[in-house]
Write a structure and sequence with these properties.
Distance between the termini: 18 Å
Number of helices: 8
CATH architecture of the largest domain: 3-Layer(aba) Sandwich
Strand content: 15-25%
Helix content: 40-55%
Number of strands: 12
CATH topology of the largest domain: Rossmann fold
Number of domains: 2
Shape: elongated
Order of helices and strands: EHEHEHEHEHEEEEHEHHEE
CATH superfamily of the largest domain: Response regulator
Length: 231
C-alpha cells in the first residue's frame, strides 16, 4: 500500500533527506516549508502521516498540531532541534504520536513512520458496513449486494473485496493483499491473488461504477465512478 507522508520543515535539506529514504520504502511524499502551508497541504492532500518540524516560520509545529487535532486524527511525528523535554511533553500532550530530535538517522525516521502507521491502523475501529459505487458489503453478516441485488462470494473472495473496499483508491501490492486476506504466516504463491482477483472481477462484471484496476508492476486498487476503467 502506497501511503502518503507529508514532510513539513523549513530546512529543505531535511525535507529532501526524508523524501529520499521514504521514497525508497515505497511511500509517496508531499512537502511544505512553513506552518500555514502545512495546514493547506494537510487539507488538500489528506496524508496518511505527517512529519512536522517544531520550529518554523509563519506558524510553529505545536500550533499546527493543535489546529490539525481540531478536525483530524492523522498520525503526527514531530521533529525538533531542541533537546528540552518540555517540548517533547507538550507535543505529545497536544496530540503528536511520536517525537524525534534533530539531527536524526533517516533509517530510524522510516522505522518510526512504519511503526506509527502500523499502530494507528491497528487502533482504528473496523467499519462494519462498507459501500462504494453501488456495492454494499456487511462484514458482520458477510453479505454483499450490488445495486440491491445479492452477490454470492467464496470466503476468500469476500475477504479480498473487504480489503479493496477498506482501502478504496489505494494501490495494494500482492504481498500486502496476502497479509490482509491470507494472513502474515501464509507463504503461498502471490499468483493466487491474481486468480482470486479474476474470479472477483467476474462476480462484479455488472458493476457500472466500480472496478478492480490493475496497477502494472505493483498490484491492484478499487476505483469508483469515472475513474473506474479497468486497465
Amino acid at each position: 500500500m502506497a501511503s502518503t507522508v507529508l514532510v513539513v520543515d523549513d530546512e529543505k535539506n531535511i525535507v529532501q533527506l526524508a523524501r529520499l529514504y521514504l521514497n525508497k520504502e515505497g511511500y509517496e511524499v508531499e512537502s511544505a516549508y512553513d506552518g500555514l502551508e502545512a495546514l493547506k497541504m494537510a487539507k488538500s492532500v489528506r496524508p496518511d502521516l505527517i512529519i512536522l518540524d517544531l520550529m518554523m516560520p509563519e506558524m510553529d509545529g505545536l500550533e499546527v498540531c493543535r489546529e490539525l487535532r481540531k478536525t483530524s486524527n492523522v498520525p503526527i511525528i514531530m521533529l525538533t532541534a531542541k533537546g528540552d523535554d518540555i517540548d517533547r511533553i507538550v507535543g505529545l500532550e497536544i496530540g503528536a504520536d511520536d517525537y524525534m530530535t534533530k539531527p536524526f538517522n533517516p533509517r530510524e525516521l522510516v522505522a518510526r513512520v512504519k511503526a506509527v502507521l502500523r499502530r494507528t491502523a491497528q487502533d482504528a475501529p473496523a467499519q462494519a458496513v462498507l459501500e462504494a459505487g453501488g456495492l454494499r458489503l456487511d462484514t458482520a453478516s458477510r453479505e454483499v449486494t450490488l445495486d440491491g441485488a445479492e452477490i454470492t462470494l467464496r470466503a476468500k473472495e469476500f475477504d479480498l473485496l473487504t480489503a479493496f473496499m477498506r482501502y478504496a483508491g489505494i494501490v495494494l501490492d500482492r504481498e500486502r493483499l496476502l497479509q490482509l486476506v491470507w494472513g502474515a504466516d501464509y507463504y503461498g504463491d502471490t499468483r493466487t491473488i491474481d486468480v482470486h482477483v479474476a474470479w472477483l472481477r467476474e462476480k462484479l462484471a455488472a458493476a457500472k461504477n466500480v472496478k478492480i484496476q490493475t496497477v502494472w508492476g505493483v498490484g491492484y486498487k478499487l476505483v469508483v465512478d469515472q475513474d473506474a476503467e479497468e486497465s
